[in-house]
Amino acid sequence: MNFTKIFKPSYLNLFLINFIKTSAEFDSNHIFVEENLNEDFSKEKFQKYVKRNIEECTKNCMKNVNIKLNFMDMIVNRKLDEKAAAYCHLFCLKNLGLSNIKRNGRWAFFPIVGFSEFVSSLFAFLGLVLNIYIYHFRLSRLIKFSPLSFSIKLHYHVLNAAFFTSFMYHFNYNSFTRNADYSTALFSILVYTINSIKRIFLLYKINNVFSRNIMYGGIVIFVIYYNYMTFINFNAILNKLVIFFMVLVSNVCYIIIYFKKKNISNNDNKIMIRNLLTFSFLKYVSILFEVTDFPPVFYIIDSHALWHLGLFLSIGPYHGFQCKEIEILIKN
């Protein structure tokens, strides 16, 4: 069985067929042609074979496809074989009429202006911009009055790092951007969780050695944990359990704050509670989208992109909650 390259790949061609149900037809419109078929090896059998072996299809495509690196690829240090593999994976899926199938744990996406996952990158970038804007124009003037000023500043900077690395990761997937995205995302969840615990200490006026040093202890634990997971033995189940535990703890803390504050009738408190409920709701919806892990619609927007959208929308009410929290402390 020989495969011959018969046309130069076009992303415009892929974009157009995103909206059209296609099937595998071995003619001049496709990247593969069939030569010297034996009588007992029909086109139908070959089509079934390729459907069962999408990776084989991708490999054969990569041997024949003519793809070059452009300026955007050079900026993000994208490798030629990575670009060809992503193209061929998408091409085979569309031309064989298959539903989206993961390759190396990742869905096939249609690349837009050089981005591997344009929508996720877009929402991550917008989250970065909004986080910086709200912090500097609203929160920064109040933060010096908060007992949690160090923790809030740390979370702000960690969030910026998480948004930026996520933007780069979805721009171009490689080992560096993957590790950077994982570390900053994990650390941002940790700091968020510790801040929720410190808010409980503040609510009940607990001031001891543990409450004052919990953040430093968390940072030490994070460094040990991250190095173990990255350089010694990455355990996916353990990682999910750790993240689940942190999310659970933070949720419990904010539920306690809600029930403690919900009956206070002054306007500032009502606004604070409304913001708490809003960012909590958006967080839950985002998590729901993330765990569903549905494939990208039209090869453009998937569940993870909606996770980033939820995070982006939650930034405003989250900072609004923090601002009102500090204003209430100042007035009291």
From TrEMBL:
<dbReference type="Pfam" id="PF04080">
    <property type="entry name" value="Per1"/>
</dbReference>
<keyword id="KW-0472">Membrane</keyword>
<dbReference type="GO" id="GO:0006506">
    <property type="term" value="P:GPI anchor biosynthetic process"/>
</dbReference>
<keyword id="KW-1133">Transmembrane helix</keyword>
<feature type="transmembrane region" description="Helical">
    <location>
        <begin position="237"/>
        <end position="259"/>
    </location>
</feature>
<dbReference type="GO" id="GO:0016788">
    <property type="term" value="F:hydrolase activity, acting on ester bonds"/>
</dbReference>
<feature type="transmembrane region" description="Helical">
    <location>
        <begin position="271"/>
        <end position="291"/>
    </location>
</feature>
<comment type="similarity">
    <text>Belongs to the PGAP3 family.</text>
</comment>
<keyword id="KW-0337">GPI-anchor biosynthesis</keyword>
<protein>
    <recommendedName>
        <fullName>Post-GPI attachment to proteins factor 3</fullName>
    </recommendedName>
</protein>
<dbReference type="InterPro" id="IPR007217">
    <property type="entry name" value="Per1-like"/>
</dbReference>
<feature type="transmembrane region" description="Helical">
    <location>
        <begin position="214"/>
        <end position="231"/>
    </location>
</feature>
<feature type="transmembrane region" description="Helical">
    <location>
        <begin position="154"/>
        <end position="171"/>
    </location>
</feature>
<feature type="transmembrane region" description="Helical">
    <location>
        <begin position="108"/>
        <end position="133"/>
    </location>
</feature>
<feature type="transmembrane region" description="Helical">
    <location>
        <begin position="183"/>
        <end position="202"/>
    </location>
</feature>
<dbReference type="GO" id="GO:0005789">
    <property type="term" value="C:endoplasmic reticulum membrane"/>
</dbReference>
<keyword id="KW-0812">Transmembrane</keyword>
<keyword id="KW-0256">Endoplasmic reticulum</keyword>
<keyword id="KW-0732">Signal</keyword>
<comment type="function">
    <text>Involved in the lipid remodeling steps of GPI-anchor maturation.</text>
</comment>
